[in-house]
Amino acid sequence: MNIKRVKLVYYSPTGTSEKTVKAIQKGIDIDYDIVDLTLPDSESKNYTFDSTDIAVIAVPVYSGRVPPVAVKRISRLKAQNTPTVLVAVYGNREFEDALLELKNITEPNGFKAFAAAAFIGEHSFDTPETPIATGRPDAEDNKKAKEFGEKVKQKLEKLTKLDEFEVPGNHPYREGGKTGGRNPVTDPDTCILCGMCARVCPTGCVTVSDIVETDTSNCTACSACVKNCPTGARHWEHEGVLKAAKWLSTDYAKRKEPEFFL
Ligand SMILES: Cc1cc2nc3c(=O)[nH]c(=O)nc-3n(C[C@H](O)[C@H](O)[C@H](O)COP(=O)(O)O)c2cc1C
Question: Measured in angstroms, how far is the CA atom of residue 187 from the centroid of ligand 1?
């Protein structure tokens, strides 16, 4: 197939899906554009893809599914018979139905999956006290991501048409997590009111004036504000999240490795 451009599409609140997709691109090694769906302003833009593009779409896994905000933003993309690589990035627990859901939401809009992969990223709830895949993707992951990109390119060069392509997962999907009802909090003593938490929030649910306020109903628990806070003032106190972090840190301590579906 004759491909002119790669389009790297990602929703990546804490940056691991972004890093992974960029490492895959190193292996594909064709000129590329970026379609970053992480922030709310992406909803006012229109993105189109044609049959001479290859789309690489990466999302984090939330409760074994595609995060609802990503579903909404990805469903707005318009493609035309565009060869597509699906990538799920998960925090060393499981990716369950995320790749299947990603395939099912992209296909009706003209994306044709021909390759997929699951990679591991540092868990959004990782802390020094509850480490979960800390620092991933690391050098080893990046090497594998590049190898995957090379394999994707080789497969595409040999393809004459885009056949039906299967990815792991079950339908009906696993029940997804809820949005709203849990959010990080800010320690007023160490907060410098820099506004970083508001700028990196994918749903725009944080506002900063002389205090930091969070619209709990819109918080997806993505932890972008926590991981980007320059003073560590933004942190989790929510009991459910702290409990989950402890459970994940003990029960999923064994390193998992990326999986390719080609
Ligand atoms: C609300 C929520 C649910 C999550 N659910 C899962 C899960 O089901 N399985 C898993 O392994 N990791 C899970 N994670 C961890 C993320 O998939 C992981 O940290 C990923 O690398 C984040 O991607 P990003 O850096 O692109 O935001 C979850 C994270 C959050 C915030």
Answer: 24
Q: Residues 208-237: pLDDT tens digits?
A: 999 999 999 999 999 999 999 999 999 999
Q: What percent of the chain has pLDDT over 90?
A: 95
The 8-class DSSP code of residue 12 comes to -
| Structural domains for the chain | 5-172+256-261 (3.40.50.360), 185-237 (3.30.70.20)
Please answer whether residues 49 and 77 qualify as being in contact, where contact means their C-beta atoms are separated by less than 8 angstroms: yes
8 Å CB contact between 23 and 145: yes
Nearest CA to 7 out of 46, 29, 35, 36 is that of 35
Q: Is 38 in the pocket of ligand 1 (CB under 6 A)?
A: no
Whether residue 138 has its Cβ less than 6 Å from ligand 1: no
- Ligand 1 centroid – CA 16 distance (Å): 10
